[in-house]
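Now for one protein, fold included:
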Amino acid sequence: MATKKPSAGAQAGKKTSGMNVDTALVRELAELLNETGLTEIEVEDDDRKIRVSRSGGMVAAAPGFAAPTAAPAPAAAPAPAPAPATAEEAPADNADALKSPMVGTVYLAPEPGAANFVKVGDSVSEGDTLLIVEAMKVMNPITADKSGTVKSILVENAQPVEFDQPLVVIG
């Protein structure tokens, strides 16, 4: 707990094992953040250093408060659940399926609202673009590794994909 008045040992110049936090200074720094629009401020003097941050709270005093703000992001993770169900429908066909060369998000069309690159039953030639995998804001075309007919598309549009995940079966 924070105390404002130093102990008798600290007044005599001796170090104490307790932590003395100037709560008035912390509040003043927090108000300064609000007034100036800064996201972080750090103040240091002879024997102490105080850092107050908007994004993570007070770093030394409340590291646990940063976790709840990050928790909602993984809540979007259930979206990949349909992927395994789709991939398991034809496990025997997946052995020779074209696989993702990277982790990313797969897109079946060149842009939103446009027709898909290919659909089941289409005839493709080696080198034809089948879909796009976006990784780190870069759109990577995934091309057919052989000529043939598209037997199945094992992913949905805008679905996250893993490295080596089956994407398309060409027969």
